[in-house]
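Narrative progress, year one. The postdoctoral researcher (J.K.) led the effort to move from monomer predictions toward full complexes, under supervision of the PI. The following entry was the first complex the group processed end to end, covering 776 residues in total.
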Amino acid sequence: MNALLLILDGVGGLRSNKGTALEEANKPNIDELAREGATGLMHVIGRGIVPGSDTGHLAIFGYEPKKYYHGRGPFEALGAKLELKHGDIAFRANFARVEKGIVVDRRAGRIETSEAKKLEPLINGIEIDGVRVIFKSTTEHRGVLVLRGEHLSPDVSDTDPHKTGVPPLKAKALSDEAEFTANIINKLSQTIAERLEGKKANYLLLRGAGRMHKAPSFYEKYGLKAAAIAGGALYKGVARYVGMDVLEVEGATGDKHSNFKAKFEKAKEISEDYDFVFLHVKATDSFGHDGDLEGKKSIIEKIDKLIPIIKDYFDLIVITGDHSTPCIYKEHSGHPVPLLAYGKYVRKDETMKFDEFEAMKGGLGHFKGLELMDMILNWLKKQKKFGS
Amino acid sequence: MNALLLILDGVGGLRSNKGTALEEANKPNIDELAREGATGLMHVIGRGIVPGSDTGHLAIFGYEPKKYYHGRGPFEALGAKLELKHGDIAFRANFARVEKGIVVDRRAGRIETSEAKKLEPLINGIEIDGVRVIFKSTTEHRGVLVLRGEHLSPDVSDTDPHKTGVPPLKAKALSDEAEFTANIINKLSQTIAERLEGKKANYLLLRGAGRMHKAPSFYEKYGLKAAAIAGGALYKGVARYVGMDVLEVEGATGDKHSNFKAKFEKAKEISEDYDFVFLHVKATDSFGHDGDLEGKKSIIEKIDKLIPIIKDYFDLIVITGDHSTPCIYKEHSGHPVPLLAYGKYVRKDETMKFDEFEAMKGGLGHFKGLELMDMILNWLKKQKKFGS
């Protein structure tokens, strides 16, 4: 038996003068799954806790974030297909433009991907005090930077000031043992600035320092051969971190214009090759951050139309979010996300549609993200008995 | 955004030939909040666990009672405005009358407050074997006694026999390391008896030994500036323990004749000065202990009439209890307490009124007291994201 886990990022909402995006959307296919299956409310990390996208996915995949989350950097790096080693310190990096010591553009004029790629060799391979720098340019101004060596610590502050009109920040040690690392970063930023001198992108801002820790693979934990279909680097990174095969899909960009249909076609195509397919849609979250209810609703309607593509190819379909991003909140929130499960071994409840309010009455009740994988294994009849 | 947490002490009940006090009470204002907000059931410490008033409040404020509860004494002492130091051992104290070695009145004929106050200097400041005694007389026969010094332990039994017609008890060491402390208490009781000889109140009974432990403040934990409005010393003490400002309100006595209206007026008055106001009403619990359903109901009705005073002054209103005290139980019970939340960021559910039975269908489901503060922070949009 195989399962599809469809994560509509940030799908949970709050009502304002209108219903939530899930309530407002015309989504007959998803509602049919709810009617034929069961729903409930998932507290992804815990009641009232606001998940990040990284911690939310870790919890849903059954990896306790308090244990396995060590900063965003490693997930970004893994998402960019950098091979990380245990102990590596990884950062999200931005090409920026600095004039007279002041950050004037944090995205270096949205430098083109091909142009940014040419700058990669100027940074990749730098060595400072025995620490090796690995750098990869990804999309436009975005990139990832990894420090590999001895005595490194992730307890360092960002050099990205997160705004323009101010100088780039000096990395500061947030613990005694991080002095060496902060020093490396500050020397490195200087070296990079020298090498980029005269370019349009003449500075590299760093943020989200994190240390790579090994985790048991999804297959080791659950015996499920798993694949991920996602556009955004962070989601690919989390999937790689837990050892899923990350599949490339043409046009899956992780933005509002992603080729959703291609992602669903891919899920169908590989349904016999994998026990578990994680399909991630980012745009619901993006519209939530924008406070754009119509946009969020339109994505749900687009996804709804694609459900028939995969419906008969999976024995279990689970649809949920990694957190709520209500349009009236414009941020991730700690409200629980509705979850729908449809399959032969799911106990059907009386809920008739898929939204936050119907799910309050759902037969699955309230549960935590960390509990989901065990529920899925049980629905797949692949859970091992505890006891005899 | 600011929050009001209204605790109706012991509000949860059980049906008998009548409904519970919450069901029987005519409470249109509270029911309106339920209708416009959401309800659920809170297991204050855990399913089936019977909370004390101290442990219940600790859990609700997000302080794990197993970690932060070390006996009632320190809360009584803090409630009486004694400044405690880490390591102090505090007791609840009763002036009593002993004749021919037998306790004949555990309250020394309900000695008047002013008369008891005159006895304070006879006890306060005593030193025995290097241990200093701090004593404060509070209301009528009540007082608190603190031991300050080295090598003290809270593992000592009460000297209060909790009944008359028997001698005061000797304090016993409940662990090896408490021998010194038990010895001090027995010497001290003798010394106090000598100093009180010939008075109407001629003995001081001690109970509820507890050691003062420091805790992170409410502000440190949540970033919320918090105030407490309560009559009873214990509740003031718990509030002081977590670093809330405890406000004095004329006529707020913590009994059945407390000036409830003055407390609500005070909450309104300070609503702009604080992020979080804890308003405590004791009388619901007192009537529960008495088995007086009419009395308990009448308090709920009185409180209901005061809701309009504060309704428009808080962005979030949460109403619940610290435990159940059902009239047919006459004691604290481990049944969950209904909880109501009303505010902009609360997901409205379909419950139409506020009671134990409607809350079973509430959209908040079942949760623990320790989870409440995270839920409140999320409803206030003041919860920090975990992850990125």
